[in-house]
Amino acid sequence: MCDKINNNKSGDEDDNNNNNNNKSDEDDEDDDYSVSSVRAGISIGLLCARPQRAIKHPTLTTTVFHRRVLLNSLTWKKYEDARLHAAFQSAAPHPVSSDRANESARIQDSLSESNDLPNTCNTFEEIVEEEDQDEDNDNNNDSDNDNDSDEGGSVALIPGPDGDTGGGNNDSVENDQFASMEEFDHWLHNQHDDEPEGFVDPYGLEELEDREEGDGDIELDVMEDMEEDDQEPLSDLGSFRSDGDATPKQIDKYPRAGEIKEKRQSRFEDILARQDIEESPNIFRPFKDSSEFRLARWLNDLPLSKARSSNLSFGSGKTMRQRIDQLPTPRMQWKNIQVDPLYGTTSAPVYLSYRDPVNAIRSLLDRPELAKYMTYTPERHWKDKAEYTRVYSEIFTADWAWDTQASLEPGSTLLAVLLGSDKAHLTEHSGDKSAWPLYLSLGNIHSSIRNKPTKRCWILLAYIPIPSFTDPKAHHTALQQRLFHQCLEVVLKSIKRVGKKGKHLRDSLGNVRHCYTRIAAYLADYPEQTLINATAQNNSPNTTAGHHELGDSAPRPRRTREWILSRIAQAKQIAHPSNIEEYTEAAKQLGLNSVDRPFWRGHAGYQPDLVITPDILHGLFRFWRDHILKWVRYLIGAAELDHRLKALQPISGFRHFAQGISHLSQWTGREDRELQRVLVSVVVGSPKINTSVLRALRAFHDFLYLAQYRSHSTSTLQYLKEALETFHEFKDAFIKTGARRGKNGIIQHFRIPKMAGLHSYAYHIPLMGTSVQFSTEITETCHQEMAKAAYKATNRKNFFQQMAAYMNRKEVLTLMEDISSWYFERLRTKASCGHAIPCLSGYETFVSEMVIAGQKDAELEVRRASRAKGGYIWLTIKPDRRGILIDTVVGFYNIPNLHTDLVTFMGSFENVGLPLRFSLLRSDVWYRCRIQRPTIQDEDELGDTRVIQAVPPNVSQNRHGLCNCVLVKSDDDAEETGIAGYRIAQLRLIFTPRLPQTHPLYDVPLAYVYWFSHLPSRTERNINMYQVHCLRESDRSHIGEVIPLSSICRLVQLVPKFGNWANPELTKDNSMDVWKYYYLNSFMDKETYQAVW
Questions:
Q1: pLDDT averaged over the chain?
Q2: What per-residue confidence (pLDDT) applies to 959?
Q3: pLDDT by residue (tens digit) across 663-686?
Q4: CA angle at residue 327 from 326 to 328, to 5 degrees?
Q5: Three-state DSSP class for residue 848
Q6: In whole angstroms, what is the distance from residue 961 CA to residue 990 CA?
């Protein structure tokens, strides 16, 4: 949301250039870059180091921030002049000298803009022609911006404080008692203790002063009432909350957990000490400077074995790689050993490429950027101080971490080891090359950071071999299963040792703790889950449910460590493991596979039923796709389902199935998610979708969405259980209607392994934290770089060793990048504190980059502080249509009542006269806006940005336009969740009338909406969604109204109530205009599901 800025000129150089500009040049730039209409009480902030224009409406309490595309000294000078002028007018209670008064008058004149309206402009074509001319003039100063992108910046609507009229003391002052600007700033900073009621720091001066000079990228926080300690949400964009609120009111920490035993130098400090920086300040040796190092990092991924260059210190790709090998090496070095399988004979020697997992853990602890996201102390979070309702989110907030810490010696530290593996197909289009990567991470790292691919918190630990056996083909599966456990026993040997005896490990700050490792989770799909827990096929991998018990509505006992090992002992008594066929058959009867030596049998604290985590991707989503969707398609009919999906209105950011789903040949998790959003609402009314089927379908989708909560409380866990119970209660309807069928007809049971896995969620979450953090999507993402990209860098012969070498070289470069970033950031911090720093090669380049990074971090911190008070709405700086007459807008958008409704809206403000010659009033018009609000479960984190479209009708493309539906807050006292105090509307127009600067609606974005009926007090039975209908006048015209754009709370989706059969004439273009009844789709996204109920 923040455009990058490149300041190519110094401020002095810009000042010298701008002083030569004449006044007409300044006036031209005023249109796009200057700060205008600065009044007392108006807030001006800095976003991305750009001056902004802010206008506060006295009744709407909305502050509008115009991001500026370009920063130059002229606009900055005008901003400083405006800051001085408005601050003296609104804040300083002192007389001003005549010289200063003349200066203020000069500033006011330079900031004024002309609002004269043209005398005649009768056609839309003339307006468009004028707009094109205006844009051509603008392009002389700045480049065009695509309206569909954010390249041109945007307007951010940020809520203002309740009751703040945006006014102030506008009385002119005549004398000045301040000798300098610094003296005035100092005086203004000390006025907060005795400020008048309703006073707001209008320019964010505190924010500017608190930050280091040169940090840039400052965003003005949402303004706060200085007199109130307990801040309330300041706008209609207040954050919603749910029972799964991640913000605890009470936190209990395990005593003495994570104690620091001693203090040492960090690993990065050790590396720099060995490089002797004082003697040779180039930390990038053997490269000559940072630029050459970064070039080498980029070239490393290219086939440069024969490439040569005379301008670099290395002359070929081979020399470059030799220099890379001289850089500091990661802790984890690859080992390549030959493995002799305990059973069976392979056609070729078996080699295992792996790294020490404890060193992998140490490499994670070494990274300074992860330090603030690490936790070493188990916690119990409560929603209330009475400790009645628990909140579960991260691993260390659940019971397993607390109980495991209790089993360790006092003062020790628990390291929760996470493993993940999945077979990956390496070749594309042809070939059968596969890899079996094993990944490692730490549950001590916050999941929001750990599962981001860019944070590199998952480390490639090993490539498990996939050999060919010469034994009978029937034995190959059993032999491969045993070899898998044999290899993992080798790879995880050090984990087992540290888990029993502990080990002193230091973090990135040099703090040393006595740590014990425990395997907390293993991310895998169903086949690997059965492999890891020695489970027979068509059995539950984490419960004792056998094939005939998979569809039971009640959960079976857990598949514990003792249960598995005792069953293996029984199987060994029946047949010796060397007799593959007999042992496999004996183990199958006991619910086991052919594994006789599980790798985890010697690991302390290993709990198979907890380590095998519920998998949302391959568990829930695949069950939904392979069964639920298949049953529904049979009942409604493939053609009918396709037509209903095609008739839905497209929404930007969501997939629209323009051709239905029958033609899809390849499915991914993306298709699953997009279809899950609408399936329930589109099938309602179909003759074969009876009440029982609908209730089962709704209950399963409830379970699906609840299982993906990022935090759970006691209440939401109860909702999860009730949803699963309801699904089991009505699931027989799929058999009775004939939907549950196979090749031989109707199947009279639900013996599906993934159905048995549904019971694990409610059991697993209180013990291990929310399930969304354990999805196998993480390992799927890791495959792209650590398996497939590595394979492409090989010559396809003995590729595992080459893949390991490729990954090692990439990690060497990444480590050097981490060290340099950390070091230069430390130097920058010392420099800002006045400490002397050495002259280092590449320091200037890296410091400039670190300044930019620091600006981004500062922006996030400021924004995070304001998230609790609301969300954000953006418009592009340049409207899609500039200066259109209101009469033209009426015809262009086909809104006949716009005149009347706009007059009514503007006339609602007391003592405000309507503009003269209203028919000649012009407006700027936008086709879309963007909205972003805090997530429901964590107000400190912003959710996804949604695009709300209000595209006008087009005769050649869509004569109805493309106008999305929104949730509008109609009552200031509305609760934060639920629908009371909210209404549904269709956004038809986004505009800003060009009014005089003295008008309270000057530069305030407005919206014109078509209203739907008030939301009923109860949802529709069985589907549990609200039904609404279009509101029309007696002449069949829509009932609309002008509202402030800031009153829009979120994007919503309305799905037509199709009935028995969808009307053949219903299309994606007209479904929101010609139909009457709609369902408010609560499954549109996870945020809507939690907010609208």
A1: 76
A2: 82
A3: 888 888 889 999 999 999 999 999
A4: 120
A5: helix
A6: 13
What CA–CA distance (Å, rounded) separates 709 from 721? Answer: 14
Please, which residues have CB within 8 angstroms of residue 550's CB and are 6 or more apart in sequence?
Answer: 538, 539, 540, 750, 751, 752, 753, 755, 756
Q: Where are the alpha helices (DSSP H) in 922-1025?
A: none
Tokens of 696: 């089962």
Q: Rounded distance, CA 592 to CA 533, Å?
A: 8
d(CA 611, CA 773) in angstroms, rounded, equals: 13
- What pLDDT does 221 receive? 30
Residue 993 · residue 921 · CB < 8 Å:
yes
Structure tokens that stand for 1028 in this block: 């609404």
Q: Which amino acid is at 245?
A: D
Contact (CB, 8 A) for 564 and 592: yes
Distances (CA, A) of 578 to 478, 532, 568: 11, 20, 14
Which phi and psi (to 5°) does residue 951 adopt?
-80, 130
Using alpha carbons, select from 617, 586, 606 the residue that is nearest to residue 775.
617
Confidence of residue 806 (pLDDT cuts 50, 70, 90): confident
Q: pLDDT digit string (tens) for 675-721?
A: 999 999 999 999 999 999 999 999 999 999 999 999 999 999 999 99
Q: What is the C-alpha separation between 988 and 1045, in angstroms, rounded? A: 12
> Where are any strands of DSSP class E within 254-399?
262-263, 335-339, 350-354, 379-382, 390-392
The letter for the amino acid at 559 is R
DSSP 628-662: IHHHHHHHH-HHHHHHHHHTSPP-TTS---TT-ST
Q: How far apart are the first and last CA of the chain?
A: 30
Q: DSSP string covering 243-274, please?
A: TT-S--SEEEE-TTTT---EE---HHHHHHHH
Q: Which two tokens stand for residue 58?
A: 């006295």
Q: What pLDDT shows up at residue 52?
A: 33
Burial 196-211 (b: 16+ CB within 10 A, else e): eebbbbbbbbebbeeb
* Residue pointed to by tokens 């031209």: 28
Contact 381, 579 (CB under 8 A): no
The answer to whether 138 and 32 are in contact (CB under 8 A) is: yes
Give CA–CA dist 180/151, Å, rounded.
39
Q: Work out the number of other CB atoms within 10 angstroms of the CB of residue 899.
A: 16
At CB < 8 A and 24+ separation, what contacts does 784-790 make? 785/453, 786/437, 786/439, 786/460, 787/424, 787/426, 787/435, 787/437, 788/424, 788/426
At 665, the amino acid letter reads S
Other C-beta atoms closer than 10 Å to the C-beta of 787 total 25
Cα–Cα distance between 892 and 989 in angstroms, integer? 11
* 185 contact partners, CB below 8 Å, separation of at least 6: 205, 209
pLDDT band of residue 209 (cuts 50, 70, 90) is very low
Q: Which residue, among 443, 441, 459, has the nearest Cα to 377 in the 3D structure? A: 443
Structure confidence at residue 107 as a pLDDT band (50, 70, 90): very low
Quote the pLDDT of residue 840.
39
Give yes or no for a contact between 553 and 599, defined as CB atoms under 8 angstroms apart: no
Rounded Cα gap, residues 1089 and 1087, in angstroms:
5
Q: What is the reported pLDDT for 304? A: 55
Bridge partners, 390 (sequence order) = 382
In angstroms, the CA 914 to CA 899 distance is 12
**In contact, 421 and 459? CB cutoff 8 Å:** no
Q: Which two tokens stand for residue 428?
A: 């594309």
Residue 911's H or E segment, with its range, is: none
Residue 122 has pLDDT above 90, yes or no: no
- Respond yes or no on whether the N-terminal peptide bond of residue 286 is cis (omega within 30° of 0): yes
Please tell me the distance from the alpha carbon of residue 441 to that of residue 396, in angstroms, as a whole number.
15
What sign for the dihedral angle of Cα 315, 318, 322, 323?
positive
Longest dimension (CA), the chain: 106
CA separation for the pair 491, 485 (Å, rounded): 10
Tokens 């690991």 locate to: 603
**AA letter at 613:** T
